[in-house]
Amino acid sequence: MRDLEVEARVRTLEQRAGRWGWLLVATPVLLVSIVLAGRGVASPEAGIVPEIRTQRLIVLDQEGRKRVEIGEDAPDLDIKRNARVAGLIIFDGNEQERGGMVTADDGSATVALDAPRGVGYRVSDRAGMKVGADGSALIGVLSNAGGFAARLVAQGAEGQLELSRMESAEGGASTRVIHVDADGK
To answer: Of all residues in the chain, what percent are helix, strand and coil, respectively (each to 5)?
Structure first.
């Protein structure tokens, strides 16, 4: 009978120890968490770093398609440019380039918007602003037929506004130009 009593007591102690066993694991974890939170390691701001260095950052949409890219043109890029560029490029839902804000190896800076591939003239540029390495500036709007529909140019002390209309029958264009030279004429 005495053995049964001892066995029952041991079983009761084991059950109680099992109930409190989680405390032996949870207590150190809780203490470490409190210490780390106090030091700022476990705070929401812990994910903020003062600087990130990378060569390329690509933002994907929920379907995994590239929508924004920050970086430099890849050497094997299939888009022809006047110079290699670095900056922010935006893409449509088909992952086709639709514009961007970049600086180029030729010293210029450009903000551009493009038509979808296959729409209108073979060159996709449609609207843009560019400042050249010499400080000259250009704002342009291109037509789907090709060529500038409107262009505002500032170079040195001179400025010029051009408005063009494509002549579809002859393939030419008629252009009106307002030019102001350094003397204000």
So the answer is: 25, 40, 40
DSSP letter string, 49-75: -S----SEEEEE-TTS-EEEEEEE--T
Interior CA angle at 31 toward 25 and 35, to 5°?
A: 150
| Separation in Å, CA 84 to CA 126, 177, 185 | 19, 32, 38
Query: Are the CB atoms for 171 and 182 separated by under 8 Å?
Result: no
DSSP at 83: S
pLDDT in tens, 113-161: 999 988 888 788 889 999 999 999 999 998 888 777 888 999 888 888 8
The separation between CA 49 and the C-alpha centre of its own chain, rounded to angstroms, equals: 19
DSSP string over 170-181: TS-EEEEEEEE-
pLDDT tens column, 20-39: 555 555 566 666 666 666 66
Q: Quote the mean pLDDT of the chain.
A: 79
54 Cβ neighbours under 8 A, 6+ residues apart: 71
Contacts of 147 (CB under 8 A, 6+ apart): 121, 164, 166, 173
CA distance 36 to 168: 71
> What is the model's pTM?
0.64
Q: Which residue type occupies 63?
A: E
